[in-house]
Design a protein that fits this description.
- This protein has 74 residues and is mainly α.
- It has two helices and no strands.
- The protein has helices spanning 2-24, 38-42.
- It has a domain at 2-42.
Length: 74
Amino acid sequence: MAEKWEIWDSKEKVARLEEKAKKLVLEQFHKWIKVFGKKASERMSTKKIWNHMIELKKKFVPRKGKIYLLSREE
């Protein structure tokens, strides 16, 4: 039975921590509030096959591209 209470205690603790985070985080970011938790923020993302370094040729020179002006609606 002690395990049952520990589970509920941890859920309540998470809920309390989320409430504290909501006070600190802007309202527009509340739908992602779980990301701001301590445990979630310390977790590393999983390694993916596309996580690799892009090697450039020695002759490569970065160039500026054209800037297209857009209105707010666009």
